Amino acid sequence: MKIDEIRGKTDGELEFELKGLTKELFDLRFKTATENSANPSRIREARRSVARIHTILHERSNKIRGQEPR
User: Largest CB tally within 10 Å, which of 2, 29, 48, 53?
Assistant: First the structure.
């Protein structure tokens, strides 16, 4: 997920997306530990998307860079 897409979403949408990505990340890690993963690069993408969402939510909560809570 690109940063522009994340900035365009509301806080509620970001929280929902964050829950989905964390669950997916858990499932990917579990699958990798038990068997060979079909797409190991997806773990990296999911981890970075989670970090991006956390960053935007933090910016909005602290009103950094003109980000207003939505």
Answer: 53
**Rounded distance between C-alpha atoms, residue 14 and residue 23, angstroms:** 14
Thinking of the domain 3-65, which architecture would CATH place it in?
A: Orthogonal Bundle (1.10)
46, 21 Cβ separation under 8 angstroms: yes
Question: Would you say residue 69 has pLDDT above 70?
Answer: no
pTM to 2 decimal places: 0.86
Instruction: Please classify residue 53 by burial: count the beta carbons closer than 10 Å to its beta carbon, then call 0-12 exposed, 13-18 middle and 19+ buried.
Output: buried
Look-up of token digits 């060979």: 36
Q: Return the SS3 of 59.
A: helix
Q: Rounded to 5 degrees, what are φ and ψ at 62?
A: -100, 5
